[in-house]
Specification:
binds 5'-O-[(S)-butoxy(hydroxy)phosphoryl]adenosine; 584 residues; alpha/beta
Length: 584
């Protein structure tokens, strides 16, 4: 069998052969790989990431951490990471946490956060990581809805020169809930409970973690992943798509608050015993050379980043960049939102020096790991194409939407039934070219993507609608050069407002969103209109608002849509009003 062939993701004919095998006999394919990757059939992630690697090479560096300021750097070996994990696990055990209990983690990008995730796995607790940039109201909702008994956090964190009072946010969030706080700042002082030396016996189908993400509903969705399927799929995709080697130095710039930070910062890289680099600052602070300096200093071989960061860094010019040597890089990756051609070319030429393939990887919180990625082969690179399905995945297109025609692959969240023959709808718009390569074109549903952060427009609208002055609202994403998309909110008000009043309502909207969701959902502009375009049955025609928003006032939607609007005259008003949109 060719399943573990080195050239699996490089040589198109080998890729095709393995892919065909994986589709012809999926069970055999996944079972074979499962037995190779988990020879002892142990599905506790803490064992797989730590104990196994400590046995092989205890003093290998697991994590190199870079802080927000220049002078901050720490190195954590595998044995040290195991010790930190066991100590946090001890504290969880002392607080009564057992297999199956839910624990929320709200932490910045520091080694303790990774230890906290692994500590939950160690005792079999289900971690629920909440991005540390969410507001305390959003955090509160996620702690409550996940029935967490403990929240792990740190006193403060700093990002881009700003101090974030995490403990204060957490205390606000738990208010009078019966939840204990565990401060991971003091991990070195924790004493080891011998129960944390062992690890919980986790079965293939036991829940490993949950993560909230945004969909078309008012509330965020809680996504569940299981130990066996998730680890198998994230490890396999990582191994093949990034063509990893034992001595790779992996730098993924995501955050543990997102699925990328679970799969490709924590679980897959540590599964293979790699050295990983994490960075708790921003690419621009104190200057735009941070990534390049880290890559040069650590001799990073794999850089996995996001289009927003790439576009932002590209816009700075090459002065900072030229001060550093990036020749250690071997593979580049990006994820989170559609790339654009100029950013792709800049990444390929100026960062990869035309030597490194760009893995434009398409996937979702729900899929656990990468679904589409280009072949790891310079000659087959197509700018902005996520290209080929991973083994075992059968993608297709239905009414412009990317769909997955099978559900029998291990990464798929256990929220979905794995019955084959049922289709998985992705919510993304895509096209396929004559070579069978896929290109993703953005969302087709009511989800926007701001700087790679997924946000449901109805979540935003339900916050805006709580304001007394607002009658109704509709939020849409409009294109932005660096951020990909920004939020534009159309509102109707209960009474006519003066320009002054509109300004103050706009400020109120913005601060309410910041309070209830967080700064990532801050709108770019608010448009005051008299009537929203609606169908006879009362459904808001967001596609019309989007067409108007995208062409900055010039109508480009087709006539058909217009027919279904009860009062087509309202469109003229909207087109006029968008010119007077109030910038936040
Ligand atoms: C949505 C999923 C997967 C980890 C990060 C985001 C968009 C993701 C790409 C890509 C174009 C992409 C999609 C998808 N997206 N990767 N390579 N090209 N769009 O995870 O928060 O679950 O968001 O991100 O719209 O549906 P997520």
């Amino acid at each position: 069998m060719l399943f573990d062939h080195e050239l699996a993701w490089k040589d198109p004919s080998i890729y095709r052969e393995i892919y065909a095998n994986s589709i012809a006999s999926p069970e055999k394919f996944w079972e074979y790989h499962c037995s190779k990757l988990f020879p002892e059939q142990v599905f506790n992630a803490s064992f797989n990431c730590l104990d196994r690697n400590v046995k092989k090479n205890p003093n290998k560096t697991a994590i190199v951490w870079y802080g927000d300021e220049y002078c901050e750097r720490r190195e954590i070996t595998y044995i040290k990471l195991l010790e930190m994990t066991q100590k946090i696990a001890s504290e969880l055990i002392r607080r009564g946490i057992r297999k199956g209990d839910s624990v929320t983690i709200c932490m910045p990008m520091i080694p303790e956060s990774i230890a906290a995730m692994l500590a939950c796995c160690r005792v079999g607790a289900v971690h629920n990581v909440v991005f540390s940039g969410f507001s305390s109201a959003a955090l509160s909702e996620r702690i409550f809805r996940s029935s967490s008994k403990v929240v792990i956090t740190v006193t403060t964190s700093s990002r881009g020169g700003k101090i974030i009072p995490l403990l204060k946010n957490v205390l606000n969030a738990i208010n009078d809930m019966n939840v204990e706080v565990l401060l991971a700042d003091y991990v070195d002082d924790f004493s080891l409970d011998e129960r944390a030396i062992c690890y919980a016996d986790m079965k293939y189908n036991d829940t490993m973690f949950t993560l909230y993400t945004s969909g078309s509903t008012k509330e965020p969705k809680r996504i569940f992943h299981t130990c066996g399927g998730y680890q198998l799929y994230s490890a396999m995709t990582f191994k093949y798509i990034f063509d990893i080697k034992e001595d790779d130095v992996h730098f993924c710039t995501s955050d543990i608050g997102w699925i990328t930070g679970h799969s490709y910062i924590t679980y897959a890289p540590l599964f293979f015993g790699l050295k990983l680099v994490i960075f708790s600052g921003t690419p621009m602070y104190p200057n735009g050379g941070r990534y390049w300096e880290i890559i040069d200093d650590e001799k990073v071989t794999i850089l996995y980043s996001a289009p927003t960061a790439i576009r932002c860094l590209a816009s700075l010019g090459d002065e900072q960049l030229n001060r550093y040597n990036l020749s250690s890089l071997r593979v580049l990756g990006c994820v989170g939102e559609p790339m654009n051609e100029s950013a792709w070319q800049w990444y390929f030429e100026n960062i990869g020096k035309k030597r490194c393939p760009i893995m434009d990887t398409w996937w979702q919180t729900e899929t656990g790991g990468i679904i589409l990625a280009p072949l790891h082969n310079i000659e087959y690179q197509k700018p902005c194409f996520a290209s080929k399905p991973f083994f075992g995945i059968i993608p297709g297109i239905e009414n412009d939407e990317l769909i997955i025609k099978n559900k029998n692959w291990p990464g798929l969240s256990s929220n979905f039934s794995k019955n084959d023959g049922e289709i998985y709808h992705t919510g993304d718009k895509a096209m396929i070219d004559n070579d069978g390569d896929f290109r993703i074109l953005g969302r087709i549903d009511d989800v926007v993507n701001i700087c790679g952060h997924r946000l449901g427009t109805s979540e935003v609208e339900s916050v805006v609608n709580t304001l007394g002055e607002i009658e109704e609202s509709a939020a849409i994403g409009i294109p932005h050069r660096i951020k990909g998309q920004v939020l534009c909110i159309f509102v109707t008000t209960t009474t006519d407002l003066t320009d002054e009043q509109k300004k103050s309502v706009t400020e109120e909207i913005s601060s309410r969103i910041r309070q209830d969701i967080g700064a990532i959902a801050k709108p770019d502009r608010v448009v005051f209109i008299h009537e929203l375009p609606k169908t006879r049955s009362g459904k808001i025609k967001r596609n019309i608002l989007k067409a108007i928003g995208e062409s900055k006032g010039v109508i480009s939607y087709n006539g058909k849509d217009l027919d279904s609007v009860i009062n087509p005259a309202c469109i003229k008003d909207i087109e006029k009003s968008i010119k007077y949109a109030i910038r936040v």
